[in-house]
Every structure is written in C-alpha cells, then in structure tokens.
Design a protein that fits this description.
The structure is a single chain. The chain is an all-alpha fold and about 100 residues long. The protein has a domain of about 60 residues. The protein is built from five helices and no strands.
Length: about 100
C-alpha cells in the first residue's frame, strides 16, 4: 500500500504508521507537535515508504536537526548508521545537556 493513498490532509498520519506508534492514542497524534517522536519511530522501525513520507513532510534539513539533538541510545545501530548517511551528519549526542 502506498502511503500517499492513506494520507489525510487534516494533519494526521497515514494509517500505515499505526504499527510504529502502537502505544500512542491515534486520534491525538499531531504531525507537527509530535514530529520528533514520529521521526525517531520511523528511523528505528519504518519501511522505505515511511522514510519517504517523513522526508516529504518534514524535509531533510529538519530531520537532520532533530536527529542531531537525540541520544545515540535512542536508535538501533543499523538504523543510526543509515540515518547518518541519508541525512548527512556525523554523530548523535551521547549525553543530555543539563539546563542551568
């Protein structure tokens, strides 16, 4: 199934994202507010169609900014390596910054 066919224009995700976000209350997901968690889920568990959808929806530069802020431990090693190549960045963070 193509993701575009299941995409709704009301700021919601294609239904094919349900298995990736199984623990979320589906009707409450907002593609802008929740974009960081959507992107992390897709990087770790998504198909090529899911990856295409996040690139089309958020753009490579926005995805890169989000990934650079996330901890290395949030990603599967193989997913982490692929993301680094596709989004052209060198490393994830290894520790959270402490706010003063």
């Amino acid at each position: 199934m193509k993701l575009e066919a299941s995409f709704k224009s009301d700021n919601s995700l294609p239904t094919s994202f349900r298995p990736l976000l199984w623990s979320w209350r589906w009707k409450d997901i907002d593609t802008q507010r929740d974009k960081e968690e959507i992107i992390v889920s897709v990087i770790n568990e998504g198909s090529l169609d899911h990856w295409r959808w996040i690139v089309k929806t958020y753009g490579k530069s926005e995805i890169k900014k989000i990934l650079e802020k996330r901890l290395v431990s949030e990603f599967h090693p193989e997913s982490r390596n692929l993301a680094k190549v596709l989004f052209s960045f060198s490393k994830f963070r290894h520790a959270r910054r402490i706010a003063h």
